[in-house]
Amino acid sequence: MKVISIGNLSMGGTGKTPHTIHLAKIFNSYGRVVTILSRGYKGLLGNLLNVISDGHQIFYSPPQASDEAFMMARNCDGVSIITGVDRNASLKYAVKNFNSDLAILDDAYQYKKIDKNIEILLLDAKNPISTGFIFPFGYLREMPSNMNRADIIIFTNSNDNTIPEKVKKYIKPHQKVFFSRYTKPVLIKDGEEHDISNLKDKKVTAYSALANNRSFYDLLIANSIDVISFKTFIDHKKLSNSTLDKIIDNGLEKLTTEFITTEKDYVKLEGTYARIFSYIKVDLEIDNEEELISLIKDRIKE
Questions:
Q1: Element counts in the chain: helices (H) and strands (E)
Q2: Which CATH topology does 2-181+285-301 take?
Q3: Helix (H) or strand (E) holding 34
């Protein structure tokens, strides 16, 4: 079993889940038997080992499964998803029950109880180390100098291939640097895919509960969407029916014609709310992706 770790220094908002999905799909297409190991944060199943998907069938959905684990299961056919705090136990289970030969650890930069073949660190290109202080004085999990553990650094949400000035001094010569961004956003309405340009003539009410809500708002504005109301909530929050009703009522008062949210938030919606709201689905683009995949291939051959 080979192990790829994906993580960050900040409290969230760098795109760990999309990058995990992206790499899992690539290596699954190469014939590797891939399992994603996630902590399952905020899922009601708790911290014990739980199989969210065996790669063919999804066994749990939110709120039992965490929003991120369920989102990965929905987007990764053929890839098993296991949640639990003990990643070693999850790893052994994957080998024994799924014959997995490649594990991708989601949000595991700080997890040091397992041997990793390659460590991938994600940093937001627009705000890579926030204020530079550790929580509760800032938004970092550990000091910026600790990015020296990474084999590969990917600057996410990048507009170009420029390393932010405030982190240049921390990057070592042996570390490979790449840049990624979200691209090809599409509207998913009633389970069907539509061009996002369909929203340009609509009055839109939107909400998100992400670590970086601004990124979702910026995505809407960048696509010339008329956002007349935008509500934000803390990361992973499952909105109550009363809160959703307020968002809808407020939107209707402003003559909203379309209610939208993120894919991560949509998977937590049920019943009528899942029919009222649509969501934006994004794809991921990594510059020099062939080089990145080649580096990972070389490392997991060792």
A1: 8, 13
A2: Rossmann fold (3.40.50)
A3: strand 34-38
**Continuous segment of H or E residues that includes residue 83:** strand 80-83
CA pair distance 64, 196, nearest whole angstrom: 31
Tell whether the model's pLDDT for residue 140 goes beyond 80: yes
Q: Which residues contact 271 (CB under 8 A, 6 or more apart)?
A: none
- 259 closest CA partner among 240, 250, 218: 250
Is the link from the previous residue into 63 a cis peptide, with omega within 30 of 0?
yes
Confidence of residue 302 (pLDDT cuts 50, 70, 90): low
For the ranges 107-111, 113-117, 131-135, which has the lowest average pLDDT?
Answer: 131-135
| Confidence grade of residue 130 (pLDDT, cut at 50, 70, 90) | confident
Beta partners for residue 279, in sequence order: 188, 261
C-alpha distances in angstroms, 287 versus 13, 126, 160, 253, 296? 20, 17, 10, 43, 15
Tell me how crowded residue 26 is: count the other CB atoms within 10 A of its CB.
16
Long-range contacts of 196-199 (CB under 8 A, 24+ apart): 196/223, 196/225, 196/280, 197/223, 199/223, 199/225, 199/258, 199/260
Q: How far apart are CA 295 and CA 151, in angstroms?
A: 10
Length of the chain: 302
Listed by start position, the domains of the chain span 2-181+285-301, 183-283
CATH fold of 183-283 reads: Rossmann fold (3.40.50)
Same fold, 2-181+285-301 and 183-283: yes
Instruction: Tell me the per-residue pLDDT of 24-74, one tens digit each, with 9 for 90 and over.
Output: 999 999 999 999 999 998 899 989 999 999 999 999 999 999 999 999 999
